[in-house]
Amino acid sequence: MLTMEEVKHQVKLEDETLSEAEEAYLQSINLASSQAVSADIGRKLYASSEDLDADENAPDNAMVINESTKLAIKLLIGHFYINREATTSERVNKIPLGIQYLLDPYRLVPI
To answer: Which residues form the signal peptide (predicted)?
Structure first.
């Protein structure tokens, strides 16, 4: 959902030459983070209104990514980049609470 430049900037690698494996890992956590945010709020996310309009099968509750959802994706990317395992023997890290604060206004709650 984010550009590779945005992802590299988030993890402070914008000036680095990356291996194919590292580049693939960043692409993977970018996609996974975007999917996690989309699943968490129960909405399909689109990069732009043009992308949303072009998708004839877009659900009614779809939305264009905004600054809050983008920041949540960035926070997850940073978390997954630093914490490549579920836990470590040194510390247990929980995904930052700020993500929930950013996403709560966009979350669909079934009634």
So the answer is: none
